[in-house]
Design brief:
CATH class of the largest domain: Alpha Beta
Largest sheet: 6 strands, mixed
Helix content: 25-40%
Strand order of the largest sheet: 1-2-6-3-5-4
CATH superfamily of the largest domain: Metalloenzyme, LuxS/M16 peptidase-like
Structural class: alpha+beta
CATH architecture of the largest domain: 2-Layer Sandwich
Radius of gyration: 24 Å
Length: 445
């Protein structure tokens, strides 16, 4: 049988997708457990979410990150090597990550070794060693990483972009900190960070896996359910300022390419227009056939890819565009992105909205294929305090998005006149390209 590949296949039927039931429990000490049963493989994934992160660094930028590197370097008398050996023998894995809002310890285990693996995770959470020799080693590793990142244009562009748009807020510094701030951090600061933010009242557990509810509760109650430590819960009331369009050049001597970030603060995750903004971004830069990718990659051939996104933290939202181009093409790339932003809302077509909704609908089930994907998405429900029905009503809410709502969301959240432009590249070459532009004096990395 010969297939005519010039003909696009028609969709067959509607996608009807529902997550397995989300069950909410309380441990004996009051810690909330969110559990989704998934029985196709003998695996259990559990995330321990603490609502703390780099926004609590204070004047010790990088403190949360350093704590995340150190917390599993020995616990309850076990050394880091002993923990690694035990976890490896059990066929399990523990990963720890932090950003500005959250601190997450992740355990993935086979069902038959989950009990022993959970005991180790519990020790790391409730009784980390924080030995001085481990602190000095991890601090040195973080310093080396920061020095390496000085030459990574992608990292530098995102770092300075966030610094500019989140100026004077707790989100304005990089979560990894910097060399200057790292040199001010002592082991006592790490211990204080842990004591202030780790406790049963600041912990949510998210579990996905092949285990009976009662058995999971028994195991958790015998470990983390015995933890009585409480943390100090802090809140923030930061405000950002409205900005006009500016160009910032971050000098990277003799760089053959320019790393570009363009964007601004947008409305936050809770404004009620999440799905309209999702569709608007998909049209602008959220998929391969988006406007900026077709313009810069397919039409002009000056980049391997350009994309945009609405990114949210617990307080703010941001709209950002990112791409990398050969240095000589920097001005045309920036100009084209800004031109795409200008009057974007009024140029959106019904056909683009329907195509974006179709794309987002068809890819939706793939976001919940693995244990880790489900746990990550359920964790976001807790972090942003969303309704447990959010994912089950996702497709319905997406279907209800209209052309008018997308245009309105774009009008309020993709703003040409407020764009902050950050370029990491050869300052001398960039100055000659942008000689007619008003820009902030170059920034040295």
């Amino acid at each position: 049988m010969t297939v005519n590949r010039s003909i696009v296949p028609n969709p067959v039927g509607e996608i009807k997708f529902h997550l397995p039931n989300i069950n909410i429990y309380k441990l004996e000490n009051g810690v909330e457990l969110i559990f989704v049963k998934k029985t196709d493989l003998p695996i259990i994934k559990i995330n321990a979410l603490f609502n703390c992160g780099a926004k609590f660094d204070g004047n010790r930028n990088g403190l949360a990150a350093l704590t995340s590197f150190l917390i599993d370097e020995g616990a309850d008398g076990l050394s880091a090597l002993e923990i690694d050996d035990e976890i490896e023998q059990l066929g399990s894995a523990i990963e720890i990550s932090t950003n500005h809002d959250s601190f997450i310890l992740e355990l993935i285990s086979m069902s038959d070794t989950f009990s022993q693996s959970l005991q180790i995770l519990s020790k790391i959470i409730t009784n980390p060693n924080f030995d001085e020799k481990d602190f000095q080693r991890e601090k040195s590793k973080l310093e080396n990483r920061l020095n390496q990142l000085k030459d990574v244009a992608d990292y530098q562009a995102s770092k300075f972009f966030n610094k500019i748009i989140f100026e004077n807020t707790e989100y304005g510094h990089p979560s990894l900190g910097n060399i200057q701030s790292l040199n001010t951090i002592c082991n006592s600061d790490v211990k204080k960070f842990y004591n202030n933010h780790f406790g049963k009242n600041n912990l949510t557990l998210i579990a996905v896996g092949n285990i009976e509810d009662d058995h999971l509760l028994d195991l958790l109650n015998s470990t983390l359910g015995k933890w009585e430590k409480e943390s100090n819960l802090l809140t923030f009331n930061s405000k950002t300022k409205t900005t006009s369009k500016k160009l910032y050049i971050v000098n990277k001597e003799d760089a053959p390419q320019s790393e570009i970030r363009i964007g601004h603060i947008s409305s936050n995750r809770y404004d009620g227009n999440y799905f309209s903004k999702l569709v608007a971004n998909n049209i602008f830069g959220g998929q391969f056939t988006s406007r900026i990718n077709l313009n810069l990659r397919e039409k002009r051939g000056i980049t391997y890819g350009a994309s945009s996104a609405f990114v949210y933290n617990k307080t703010f939202g941001q709209f950002s565009v990112g791409t990398s181009v050969q240095a000589e093409h920097t001005k045309i790339a920036v100009t084209e992105i800004l031109d795409e932003m200008k009057n974007f809302d009024s140029s959106i077509k019904e056909s683009e909205v329907e195509f974006a909704k179709s794309y987002l609908t068809k890819r939706y089930p793939s976001m919940f294929e693995t244990f880790s994907q489900i746990a990550k998405n359920i964790t976001s429900l807790s972090l942003f305090e969303l309704e447990n029905s959010f994912f089950n009503t996702y497709l319905e809410n997406l279907s209800n998005v209209s052309l008018a709502s997308v245009q309105k969301a774009a009008n309020k959240n993709i703003l040409f006149e407020r764009a902050q432009i950050v370029i990491v590249g050869n300052c001398k070459l960039l100055k000659s390209q942008f000689k007619d532009w008003i820009f902030v004096p170059e920034i040295q990395t």
